[in-house]
Design goal:
Elements: E1 2-6, H1 19-26, E2 33-35, E3 40-46, E4 57-63, E5 68-72, H2 75-85, H3 91-103, H4 106-126, H5 135-165, H6 173-239, H7 253-274
Parallel strand pairs: 1-5
Antiparallel strand pairs: 2-3, 3-4, 4-5
Helix pairs in contact: 3-6, 4-6, 5-6, 6-7
Length: 278
């Protein structure tokens, strides 16, 4: 028998479930995977990976040789579980179908994320200035989403590790072969998420490198300007001394100093330009 329930409908289970297992579920003591002699318990937080604003909903699955119970947190979660599980001839096959449908389109979503990150990387390199506003927040959002995915697939990995051990023998050898295929798919999804996190880190480093380059260019300009006006500061200090100089009585003293200042600026400008310092 396959039964779908809300977490508020646990009172319907006593005729079908051992009191110890029911107490285990009611007290929230279910780990990702718990194995008992006559039953196995699965618990994980499910959320719609395509909706970044979706809240996780807890799903508890209890399966024995005869029965499979899906206990869901919230009506939306229950409707989703029912649509994923479908109808299959055997209980273990229902479990297999549920997890197959659960992760079926996940790879497409991860590939969309990868394309988005790749597009952003290209625009960061080619048109950095258009990304200066708000791009840091976008990177943080991506990293936060990938962290949620990482935790999501970590719990699925832990579940399938327990299923593969099959300590109580509830899964037949034939069905276990299908679960191994699912386990491999989840491993690949988890590895894909880890690669995307590294990719986002590389894009963030490229973005930071662009910021550093711009800051270095600004500092270079300030340095050149400072270097150009440094000789003029020397002239100001020289002729600002409170002593009598021969130039003070020269009719062309002031024009000479002015011309000298302009000549120094032009000479240094040409020098720095030829050296390609700016």
């Amino acid at each position: 028998m396959v039964k779908f329930l809300l977490d508020t409908q646990l009172g319907q289970l006593p005729p079908f479930m051992d009191a110890h297992l029911l107490s285990h579920i009611e007290n929230g003591q279910v780990n990702k995977f718990d194995c008992f002699s006559e039953a196995s318990l699965i618990s994980f937080d499910w959320y719609d990976i395509r909706d970044v604003d979706s809240r996780p909903a807890k799903i508890v699955i209890c399966f024995t040789r005869e029965n499979v119970f899906f206990i869901c947190e919230g009506a939306d979660c229950l409707a989703r579980v029912v649509s994923l599980a479908g109808e299959e001839p055997t209980d273990n096959r229902v479990l297999y179908v549920f997890f197959t449908e659960l992760i079926k389109s996940d790879i497409d979503h991860l590939e969309e994320l990868e394309e988005q990150i790749t597009e952003n990387e290209g625009q960061v390199i080619s048109n950095y200035k258009s990304f200066k506003t708000g791009y840091t927040e976008e990177i943080i959002c991506m990293r936060r989403e990938l962290l949620k995915l990482k935790r999501y697939y970590e719990q699925l990995n832990q579940i399938f590790e327990g299923l593969m051990e099959n300590e109580n023998g509830l899964i037949s050898a034939e069905d276990l072969r299908y679960f191994r295929i699912l386990d491999s798919k989840i491993d690949r999804l988890f590895a894909h998420v880890l690669n995307l996190r590294d990719y986002v880190t590389q894009v963030r480093e490229a973005y930071q490198a662009q910021i550093d380059i711009e800051q270095n260019n600004l500092m270079k300009i300030f340095t050149v300007v400072t270097s150009i006006f440094l000789p003029l500061t020397l002239l100001v200090g020289w002729y600002g001394m409170n002593i009598k100089m021969p130039e003070f009585s020269w009719d062309y003293g002031y024009p000479f100093v002015a011309a000298l200042s302009v000549l120094v600026v032009i000479a240094l400008f040409i020098f720095f330009k030829r050296r390609k310092w700016f």
